[in-house]
Automatic annotation (TrEMBL):
Higher taxonomy: Bacteria, Pseudomonadati, Pseudomonadota, Alphaproteobacteria, Hyphomicrobiales
Protein name per its UniProtKB record: Methylthioribose-1-phosphate isomerase
Gene (UniProt): mtnA
Matching Pfam families: IF-2B
Regions crossing the membrane: none
PANTHER family referenced in this protein's UniProt entry, alphabetically: METHYLTHIORIBOSE-1-PHOSPHATE ISOMERASE
Catalytic activity: 5-(methylsulfanyl)-alpha-D-ribose 1-phosphate = 5-(methylsulfanyl)-D-ribulose 1-phosphate
Amino acid sequence: MKVEGKHFRTIWVNEDGWSVDLIDQRWLPHEFRVETVRTVAGIATAICDMWVRGAPLIGVAAAYGVAMRMREDPCDAALDAVWEELHATRPTAINLRWALDEMRNLLRPLPPGERAAAAYRRAAEIADEDVELNRSIGRHGLNIIRRIARGKKPGEPVNILTHCNAGWLATVDYGTATAPIYLAVEEGIPVHVYVDETRPRNQGAHLTAWEMAGHGVPHTLIVDNAGGHLMQRGKVDMVIVGTDRTTAQGDVCNKIGTYLKALAAHDNGVPFYVALPSPTIDWTVRDGVKEIPIEERSEDEVSLVWGRDTEGRIRQVRIAPQTTPAGNPAFDVTPARLVTGLITERGVTEASAEGLAKLFPERARTA
Ligand code: MRU
């Protein structure tokens, strides 16, 4: 997508053919910074410390990490070690494991001398595929927005609520939940987006609001607790969120707080959609609520808040007593029964084993 008129993806390989540049999201919306990463340790830090985040993007970053290691040392032991090292960075988004498996399965049968080049090729393909998957998600999701728009008075916007950032910054480009929104805007459909701030890290306030502002999408930032009230007052036509891992039964794991939005949507008859590319489906887990590992992050993310002060300095401030302990589960699971539909690259389906198996018969059979 464009930043000040220039097209950017979130990650790309430099002219040297092996180091990568990535948008360092920690500084947005205040500063747009690009970092160069040259080592596997650098990729691991970028994922752990959330310079890059969002399920599809961390998968792509990890794929480039594997390629970097193969350039230094293409032996089998190095391949296994880099898989472990990068897999340990974040536990919840399944795209990370998916990308690491893709890389290892491709590279293992190759002679070591061919591994580095093949790894960079496959990492670039995974990045390009992500863009295509998101475009397709966008087209399918657009049909839903069109349908809602047809029931509106001329000029009246379709009001969409979203949580966290499942935008282009969470992917290589376009985003998952935002792809239908961007296409609707391109088509001239009036939309308005309620952006949940998404405590504790404020991905909504920092990233989604920045994306919406940058692309001229009318939007309003709301506190996480406002969604239920707005739904009761009929101010939300649909919810679209992304996901870090969706089970074959349609349970949806996403940023903490998504479940509460789904409950409020269900109670108020507001359609609740989840946008996801197929690498986000975990075909192995049976019960999402019990089995998906939920990342527990630092207490500091809850007790300290980042912002820019009136003198223009980006800094953290403490919002709780120094001695108060904080808990920080980063994700929750929304049971399939609360999900109106899954928007995938192959179309929209109900959140159920049957629905997903119909769209992805080849995966469902082997799971
Ligand atoms: O902790 P984050 O910022 O990586 O969490 C991101 C999300 O929860 C997104 O909604 C999810 O990864 C989907 S991204 C297309």
